[in-house]
Amino acid sequence: MGLSAEQLKTSLDSLADRDSDIARALGAVGYPEPRIRDRGYSTMLRTIVGQQVSAAAANAMWNKLEGFLGSGCSATALLEACDEDLRACGLSRQKQGYARSLAGLVTEGDLSFDSLPEDDEDAIALLTRIKGIGRWSAEIYLLFAEGRPDIWPAGDLAVQEAVGKIKQLGARPAEKAAREIAEPWRPHRGAAAIFAWHAYKSDVI
């Protein structure tokens, strides 16, 4: 599960003590709500289903998939389904390939969501073996579903925009700069990321 409200508060208070810009922003916009997803295969499959479509469309596709494959859309059931049936549930040919890649890694024992590597970079490397899952999606999974405290999705445009606002840079920093700015925030960069999305939506900083 993701970082709790208590964990977020503890981490952000620690960051505010060492970074006056975060202290100022935290005072202006307050603490963010937790972003929590269930750990496991089904959450990653939902990530694939939701790529490049609206939330409403993603929910509709997921409901069709569960109606056809059963609750959670098990990896075995997905692999046994034919392309036409998956297409009828709304999955494009590309998403079918991504979903089958995930299901194959799980059923073959090459990927276990219950025992991902403890090292964040090793876990990201394993998750990105899934076709269609890039670094950002892997980072979001590790942050929201596993609650890893030091995940920093510096490639996220909203995070970059928020960092620019929080640090009063006058412009959005590029990914490399966003990573460098966040180095002093270790080991609380996960909370900083969730706070960045919260701050991004605010117009008071």
The helix content, as a percent range, equals 55-70%
Spell the H/E element sequence: HHHHHHHHHHHH
Distance between the termini: 30 Å
The average pLDDT score comes to 97
What is the count of β-strands?
0
Quick overview:
The chain has 205 residues and is mainly α.
Characterize the structure shown.
- This protein has 205 residues and is mostly helical.
- The protein is 60% helix and 0% strand.
- The chain has 12 helices and no strands.
- It is elongated and about 55 Å long.
- The two termini are 30 Å apart.
- The mean pLDDT is 97.
What's the layout of helices and strands?
Elements: H1 5-18, H2 20-29, H3 41-49, H4 55-69, H5 75-80, H6 83-88, H7 93-107, H8 120-127, H9 135-144, H10 157-166, H11 175-182, H12 189-200
Give descriptors for this structure:
single chain; 205 residues; mainly alpha; 12 helices; elongated
